[in-house]
Amino acid sequence: MTSNGRRPLLNRRLAEFGTTIFAEMSALALSTGSINLGQGFPDTDGPEEIREAAVRALRDGRGNQYPPGPGVPELRTAIAAHQKHRYGLAYDPDREVLVTAGATEAIAASLLALVEPGDEVIALEPYYDSYAASIAMAGGTRIPVTLRPHEETRDGVTHRRFRLDLDELRDAVTDNTRLLLVNTPHNPTGTVLTREELGEIAKLAVERDLLVITDEVYEHLVFDEAEHLPLASFPGMRERTVTIGSAGKTFSFTGWKVGWVTGTPDLVTAVRSAKQFLTYVASGPFQYAVAEALALPDTYFAAFRADMLAKRDVLAAGLTEAGFKVFQPAGTYFITTDIRPLGESDGFAFCRALPERAGVVAIPNAVFYDHREAGAPFVRFAFCKRTEVLVDAAERLRKAFAH
Ligand SMILES: *Cc1c(COP(=O)(O)O)cnc(C)c1O
After folding, report:
1. Fold observed for domain 12-41+299-401
2. Is residue 217 in contact with ligand 1, taking CB distance under 6 Å?
């Protein structure tokens, strides 16, 4: 379609980003009455006391008018306290913390602030869907480094994960590389980068003097022996790292859109320069509620993790019995599967047929890749749903595929 017969309406930077797969798959879920394990949002709200805190803020007239540009002081203080308590990372709430409209705005503002047209931005592929578009809006060139499926057997147990090839990462850095965009725990693969991997990333960033943006929105969703380690805590990293967090995933209020950035005053000031012309401010009353949420006792975070772990195990068992090859996630609330044991190889075709075949909706991982063929046989299921929904989905998948 053209506006005047000569020029497409959508500009060249965004031309490749038509509509997202989530719209198509959610429509399919509705029209077929399927269980939607496509998009990653919980089907129950977060803690009642935090919901009440938002109501109180709204009633008391806190945050109903433009909050301060950097975020309300209560929340900035709570974010700094959280980073200190969890990771021993000290940030000045006044100069080193910025509240954003979710992690999505934090990602966009960071890239818009730090990337010059022509700069190369290295991102781990498959990537969260806003990365490619935000890099494009900033005029950057994205350089994917692909996480590869890896399998090893220890003590008779097979462990599968998508693994970062550090040599590949090293080789991707050029004189035009401006920054590394890292995501751990990683959506969609469920990989949690290890201390060794993060140490190597840090060494490379220091050696090549690169900036780093690290998306850690799933920091509280790590399972089994995995441990979330913030990249900013590695030697030489604090001064070059923009760390991004969000309340959405941790407190099961994805509609509130409260996210944040922590970093040095220079980095935070740069990000704020872009942020102030995107939304300026957002989510006033919710900022007060999230300040209370971040101060919840450690028992909240432990219970949240245990609950999600139990959900993971329900869905993973169902998928395994149905015949999928399951990459047991060490973090996030997604399970990536390989459909080849089912005699399938095209995730797109598989996901389009799945609602009719099994009454379940999933997402083909290929949408998160530039190298579509590398992602072709992988399909992602979200497990942030009520247990009875997951039990039902697991049963449907077993019925459709296990023979
Ligand atoms: C959900 C998600 C986001 C977006 O977070 P919001 O706070 O809802 O904007 C960013 N990054 C990753 C990896 C996510 O999964």
Report:
1. Aspartate Aminotransferase, domain 1 (3.90.1150)
2. yes
